[in-house]
Design brief:
- With about 450 residues, the protein is α+β, with helices and mostly antiparallel strands.
- The chain folds into two domains: about 10-175, no CATH class; about 190-455, Rossmann fold (3-Layer(aba) Sandwich).
- The protein contains twelve helices and 17 strands.
- It has a ten-stranded antiparallel beta sheet with strand order 1-10-2-3-4-5-6-7-8-9. The protein has a seven-stranded mixed beta sheet with strand order 14-12-13-11-15-16-17, with helices on both faces.
- A hairpin with a 6-residue loop joins strand 12 and strand 13 (about 255-265).
- The protein is elongated, with a radius of gyration of 26 Å.
- It binds guanosine-5'-triphosphate and magnesium ion.
- Guanosine-5'-triphosphate binds near residues 210, 212, 214 and 360.
C-alpha cells in the first residue's frame, strides 16, 4: 500500500523551512502500519531525528525530537532538545507556533509520553481509542482549544534528514519563530495613541537605491505570507521611485487593513537636480502631498499644484520618519549627501516628528540577532556603522535599526522577519510618543499658520 502523508504540501514546506531546509521522510503512518505503539516503534527506532505528527478533527500538532526514537520500555537518559508545534490558518495564510522543551521520551506498549522537568507534557495512547493528552502549557503556547484528553484520527512519524545536530541551533530556531509570532501579535493589536488617527504614516526617506521601496515590500510580504513586490524596486543611477506613493498593508490576502501606511519617496541624490527636491519634504511632513504625486527634482510642489492638499489634518501628516540607508555604504556617503541629510534632520528635530535610522542590506541576520534578541545593534560587524549614524544625525543607538529586506529571496525567512517586524514596531512606538506629545491645539484640524507649519516652512 502506498503511503501518502496527511501533511499538506504547504505545511510540509513551512516545517522544512523552520528546520533550516531539512528533508522529511515518512516512516510510519498508523492507518497503514497498525495503530499500536509496537508498530510505531518497530518502524521508527534509531532513525535519527524524528517528528511525530498527530492529526485530530480540530487541529494538527507535531513534536520534533533531535535524538533517536528509543525502543520499547527504554527511555532517553538525558532530556532531548525537542519542540512542539501547531499550524494556524488565518486569511489563507499558514503560521506556525512553537514551544521548545528539553523532553524525556518514555515508551511502553501502552503509550508514548514526553516529560519535561518531571511533568507529563504530552502523551499518545493508541490502545484507548487513539487518545492524546496535551499539557495546558502546550495548549496555550500553540493556541489549541480542545477537550483534554481528546482523540486523534491519524498519527505519522517522519525522519528528519539534514538538520544540524546542535541543541543551541534547535533552541534558536524555535525562539525565532516564537519571537516572530509575538511581534506579529503586537503589530496586529497595535492602536495609534488615543485613537487620534486611524493609521500611522511612516515616511521612508533616503539616498537612491537604499532600500526604501523594498522595506515596504518586505513588510507587505510578511503580512501576505509570501514574497510580494508591489512597489517597483531596482538598481539605477537615478531613483526607481518617481512618484510619491502611500501604501497600505492588509493582514492576509483579504484581511483587514493594518493601522499603518508607508509613504515611499524618490531617492535623494547628492546632485540637486537628480533626486527628490528637499523642499518637498516639509510639504510631505505636513500632509500636503497627495498619493501618486509625480516628483520633479527641479521644482518642489507648491500650493498651486492641482492636487495639493491645502488643509491637511493630523491623519494626513507624517508621524514617523525612517532614514533608510544602505549599511554597506555608510562609510562612503559623500559630504554633499551627509550635508543634505543633516539639513533635513535639523528641521525634523525642530518639528519633533518621530524618527529612526533604518540600516538595510545587512548580510547575515543571525549576526545581528542574538539568541535573546536584546542586542540587536551591538555586534562587532555593524558597530562602526551604527556609531557613524549616531554621530552624523545624533540618532540614539536604540533607534538605529537594522534589516535585511526581501530582495532576491523567493520565500520568507523567520529571522529576516524578526528584524523587519522589530524595526516596524519601534517606528510605531515612537510615532505613539510623538502623537502623545502633541499640544492639544494640534490634534484637531491644522490651522494654516500653526506652529508646525511655521517650523516646516523654514526648511
Ligand atoms: N541584499 C539586499 N538588497 C536589497 C535590500 N534592500 C534593497 N535591496 C536591493 O537594492 C536595490 C534598490 O532597492 P529599492 O528598494 O528599489 O531602493 P529605493 O531606496 O526604493 O531606491 P529608489 O526608489 O531608486 O530611490 C534593489 O535591487 C533591491 O533588490 C536588502 O536589505 N538587502
Ligand atoms: Mg524606491
Amino acid at each position: 500500500m502506498t503511503m501518502t502523508t496527511r501533511l499538506t504540501w504547504n505545511k510540509e514546506k513551512h516545517l522544512q523551512k523552520l528546520l533550516g531546509n531539512a528533508s522529511l521522510s515518512l516512516l510510519y503512518k498508523s492507518s497503514v502500519h497498525g495503530s499500536s505503539i509496537e508498530d510505531m516503534v518497530q518502524k521508527c527506532s534509531y532513525q535519527g531525528s524524528t517528528i511525530i505528527m498527530i492529526y485530530s478533527m480540530e487541529y494538527t500538532i507535531g513534536a520534533f525530537m533531535l535524538d533517536n526514537f528509543p525502543i520499547l520500555y527504554k527511555c532517553l537518559k538525558e532530556p532531548c532538545p525537542s519542540f512542539f508545534f501547531s499550524f494556524q490558518e488565518k486569511n489563507n495564510i499558514i503560521e506556525m507556533r512553537t514551544l521548545f522543551l528539553n523532553a524525556v521520551l518514555k515508551i511502553t506498549d501502552k503509550c508514548l509520553e514526553f516529560y519535561s522537568s518531571g511533568v507529563l507534557k504530552f502523551s499518545v495512547t493508541p490502545r484507548e481509542n487513539n487518545k492524546i493528552f496535551l499539557h495546558y502549557l502546550i495548549l496555550e503556547e500553540l493556541g489549541i482549544i480542545c477537550r483534554n484528553p481528546s482523540s486523534y484520527v491519524e498519527c505519522e512519524v517522519f525522519r528528519v534528514d539534514g538538520i544540524k545536530n546542535d541543541p543551541g541551533y534547535i533552541k534558536k530556531l524555535t525562539a525565532v519563530t516564537q519571537r516572530r509570532n509575538s511581534l506579529l501579535g503586537d503589530l496586529r493589536a497595535y492602536k495609534p495613541y488615543a485613537d487620534l488617527v486611524s493609521e500611522i504614516r511612516i515616511l521612508l526617506l533616503g539616498p537612491v537605491g537604499s532600500g526604501k521601496s523594498s522595506f515596504f515590500n518586505s513588510v507587505k510580504s510578511i503580512f501576505q505570507g509570501h514574497i510580494t513586490r508591489q512597489a517597483v524596486v531596482g538598481s539605477n543611477n537615478s531613483s526607481m521611485t518617481e512618484q510619491y506613493r502611500i501604501y497600505s498593508v492588509r493582514d492576509g490576502k483579504e484581511g483587514k487593513y493594518l493601522p499603518f501606511v508607508f509613504c515611499d519617496t524618490m531617492g535623494l541624490d547628492e546632485t540637486d537636480e537628480i533626486g527628490m527636491c528637499i523642499e518637498d519634504i516639509p510639504q510631505i511632513l505636513k500632509g500636503c502631498v497627495p498619493d501618486r504625486y509625480q516628483f520633479n527634482p527641479r521644482e518642489p510642489i507648491t500650493p498651486k499644484h492641482s492636487t495639493f492638499i491645502s488643509s491637511p489634518s493630523l491623519k494626513d501628516r507624517i508621524h514617523c520618519v525612517a532614514y533608510v540607508l544602505d549599511i554597506n555604504s555608510i562609510d562612503n556617503l559623500s559630504s554633499c549627501m551627509v550635508a543634505k541629510l543633516r539639513k533635513i534632520h535639523e528641521k525634523l528635530l525642530d518639528c519633533g516628528v518621530a524618527h529612526v535610522a533604518l540600516l538595510t542590506k545587512v548580510k547575515h541576520c543571525d549576526e545581528v540577532l542574538q539568541t535573546n534578541f536584546s542586542n540587536m545593534t551591538r555586534n562587532n560587524a555593524s558597530q562602526s556603522q551604527v556609531k557613524a549614524i549616531n554621530r552624523m544625525l545624533d540618532i540614539p543607538i536604540s533607534n538605529i535599526l537594522m534589516v535585511k529586506n526581501y530582495a532576491s529571496e523567493r520565500e520568507l525567512d523567520h529571522m529576516q522577519d524578526v528584524l523587519i517586524l522589530s524595526a516596524l514596531r519601534q517606528m510605531l512606538r515612537l510615532a505613539g510618543d510623538f502623537l502623545e506629545d502633541l499640544p492639544s491645539e494640534e490634534t484637531g484640524k491644522l490651522a494654516p499658520f500653526c506652529f508646525f507649519h511655521k517650523v516646516l516652512t523654514k526648511l
